[in-house]
Design a protein that fits this description.
Elements: H1 2-6, H2 12-25, H3 28-35, H4 57-75, E1 83-86, H5 91-101, H6 106-112, H7 114-122, H8 129-138, E2 144-150, H9 154-169, E3 176-183, E4 188-189, H10 192-195, E5 199-212, E6 221-226, E7 237-240, E8 245-251, E9 257-261, E10 276-278, E11 281-283, E12 286-290, H11 300-303, E13 304-311, H12 312-315, E14 336-339, E15 352-354, H13 360-368, H14 399-412, E16 416-427, E17 436-443
Parallel strand pairs: 1-2, 6-9, 7-14, 12-16
Antiparallel strand pairs: 3-4, 3-17, 5-6, 5-16, 7-15, 8-9, 8-13, 10-11
Helix pairs in contact: 6-7
Enzyme class: ligase
Domain Aminoacyl-tRNA synthetase class Ia: 19-444
Organism: Senna tora
Length: 444
């Protein structure tokens, strides 16, 4: 052995294979388990991978660390059973079957039959088991592949439900909502890590709309800005920054009175709107921007007369006329101004429109200000990314496809101030290629 080690042709991989062969020949792992059978048990839960893909560096790294833990505990005098497992549920399996069968919506699954869909999923979950066993064994890890477990086993699923039932009965879990990046293509929320995997520079509609202030002596309107018109039907509040100075200004051409942050006055269109409707679509004061929405500061006061300066804090509590009437049952608490420091003055108007089901800050602010509660939150977009029956004018429409018609509806109400195109970096689902949205999903 010494002679071999001193030779220049010594191969570590070959030496590893020699050791693996010896372990197999003397049944080293099985013998260790037999010898420690009566020792104190050390329980090690091994989070299972999907067998629909091949092992990669991350699996090998984690598996090596797990192997160190179990070997160490065995050396400390414990009996450590180690069973490999397979995660048979969730997105990777379903995504493959959806592509295979051309499934686009939940209705497609129901039409096929849930039993048939499940069988299709089961058929691929163990596709690469042999390759996994070969790679994991080659890394030197001691783990039992013959007595493995699968999350689709009835006993496993029932054990998980039993554990959850115990937590529920003891009052240790409750149902609520969490706003998360959501893929309408895969019908599932994604982690923030996944959401950051695929950004693209894309053009989106950019609009400014008016929210008339109830009881204002000048008939002023708050002006908010958004690049997601599809969220407007779910608007429940407007948010300002209590520390900003706001201005009430009159357009010298149209006579209309607006309220915006003083530092964002330049974002308002400075000429009298000359909007027409061509083929039912908006053809008005358009702008094309790249980056944050901003206007020119020169000559802005040639178009506007400053009537009053207001602190952001003084605006809190003021009520406004809703843009749409879909949530009038909440009018007792909704459609009013709140304040939060997440409102910035580097884009928009310094007034943010809040749709609590479709924004993390929107959700938090509306909960904190008791505009909604977690119990009465209505998510008016279904799992496929289509408006629910609640949004009667756009029910069943895919949200991004409805953007243009929603802008047209805002214009028809006389509430459109500016319409344009905004090019920005936007996250897309790395599996389906569809744009991600932020959506409240039920969570325990």
């Amino acid at each position: 052995m010494d002679d071999v080690c001193e030779g220049k042709d010594f191969s570590f991989p070959k030496q590893e294979e020699t050791i693996l062969h010896l372990w197999s020949e003397i049944k080293a792992f099985e013998t260790q388990l037999a010898r420690t059978e009566n020792s104190p048990e050390y329980i090690f839960y091994d989070g299972p991978p999907f067998a629909t893909g091949l092992p990669h560096y991350g699996h090998i790294l984690a598996g090596t660390i797990k192997d160190i833990v179990t070997r160490y505990q065995t050396m400390k005098g414990h009996h450590v059973t180690r069973r490999f497992g397979w995660d048979c549920h969730g997105l990777p399996v379903e995504n493959e079957i959806d592509k295979k069968l051309g499934i686009k919506k939940r209705e497609d699954v129901l039409k096929l039959g849930i039993d048939k869909y499940n069988e299709e999923c089961r058929s691929i979950v163990t596709r690469y088991v042999e390759e996994w066993e070969k790679v994991i064994t080659r890394t030197g890890r001691w783990i039992d592949f013959k007595n493995d477990y699968k999350t689709m086993d009835l006993k496993f699923m029932e054990s998980v439900w039993w554990v959850f039932a115990q937590l529920y009965e003891k009052g240790l879990v409750y149902k609520s909502f969490k706003v998360m990046p959501y893929s309408t293509g895969c019908k599932t929320p994604l982690s923030n890590f996944e959401a950051g995997q695929n950004y693209k520079d894309v053009p989106d509609p950019e609009i400014m709309m008016a929210f008339p202030v109830i009881g204002d002596p000048h008939n002023a309107s708050f002006v908010a800005w958004t690049t997601t018109p599809w969220t407007l039907p779910s608007n429940l509040a407007l948010c300002v920054n209590a520390n900003f100075t706001y201005v009430k200004v009159r357009n010298k051409f149209s006579g209309k009175v607006y309220i915006v942050a003083e530092s964002r006055l330049s974002s308002l269109p400075t000429e009298k709107p000359k909007q027409t409707v061509t083929n039912g679509s908006v053809d008005g004061p358009k702008v094309k921007t790249k980056g944050s929405s901003s206007g020119k500061t020169e000559n802005v006061l040639d178009s506007f007369e400053v009537l009053e300066k207001l602190s952001g804090a003084s605006l809190v509590g003021k009520k406004y006329e809703p843009l749409f009437g879909y949530f009038m049952e909440l009018s007792g608490t909704a459609f009013r101004v709140v304040a939060d420091n997440y409102v910035t003055d580097d884009s928009g108007t310094g007034i943010v429109h809040c749709a609590p089901a479709f924004g993390e800050d929107d959700f938090r602010v509306c909960i904190d200000n008791k505009i909604i509660s977690k119990e009465n939150l209505t998510v008016a977009v279904d799992d496929d990314g289509c408006f629910t029956a609640k949004i009667t004018d756009f029910s069943g429409r895919y949200i991004k496809d409805a953007d243009k018609d929603i802008v047209d509806a805002v214009k028809a109400k006389g509430r459109l101030i500016k319409y344009g195109t905004f090019t920005h970096s936007y996250p897309f689902c790395w599996r389906s290629g569809t744009p991600l949205i932020y959506r409240a999903v039920p969570s325990w």
